[in-house]
Amino acid sequence: MKVFWSNKIYWGLQTIKYEIFELLYPSNIHCTICSQPIKDDVKYGICEKCIVHMRFAESGLQEVEDIENKYFEQLYAATYYYELEKNIIYDLKYNQKPYLAKIIAPMIIEKLGEKDYDGIIAIPLSREKHKKREYNQSYEIAKYISYELKIPLIKNVLLRVKETKPQNNLNPLERIINLSDAFRVENKRRIEEKKLLLIDDIYTTGSTVDISSKELVMNGAKLVDIAVFSRAVYEGESD
Ligand SMILES: [Zn+2]
Q1: Which helix (H) or strand (E) is 195 found in, with range?
Q2: Which of 8, 78, 106, 127 counts the most CB atoms within 10 A of its CB?
Q3: Ligand 1 midpoint to CA 205 (Å)
Q4: Ligand 1 centroid distance, CA of 45 (Å)
Q5: What domains can you pick out in the chain, each with its CATH number?
Q6: 135-148, pLDDT tens digit by residue?
Q7: How far is residue 202 from each of residues 8, 186, 227, measured CA to CA in Å?
Q8: 239 has a pLDDT exceeding 80
């Protein structure tokens, strides 16, 4: 009973918070991509001219063939990583536009379909990077997914403890070495026996999400699925 009410209060407060945010930063007045005025019923807050350039994945559920003995179960991606998706991620990460997460989350949710996870976790940034950027773009996306699906967001469990080199110019093996020991789990009882959804902005070779999934599974998670905004369809992109 106590848990029921604390849940009700928690999601009630979340609703108030997101409704205030929507009043301050309405998503249905200007196109998120080109800033032109839009009708208030357009999907994802993107105008008709822009949305045709989005490369939505035909199926959210993606095939993953290039990782042997992977630690996660399924990969879901909303889009493929082409021009417009690149711009969105760039703006989200480097142009101080964390609010773009609000249009990204519904795209991911649509591809995910009805799922029952026990918790949602975002791929963390290192402390230094977080300080510099002031927010974690994956966490921003995860926040909205958590709110929409009413699945708790699990914070401060998966930590990035090592600063890693940019993944762009590394081959798959170098990526794995670069990322080894980069993540650590704390407070593992919070994920034990839980079905988790791990959120990242982009999926390239999968090494980041796989190494994170490994940490979660080794620390007792029952299952880890991955959901990303965009999947790179060729080698050599930032992870
Ligand atoms: Zn537009």
Answers
A1: strand 195-203
A2: 78
A3: 30
A4: 9
A5: 54-231 (3.40.50)
A6: 999 999 999 999 99
A7: 33, 24, 9
A8: no
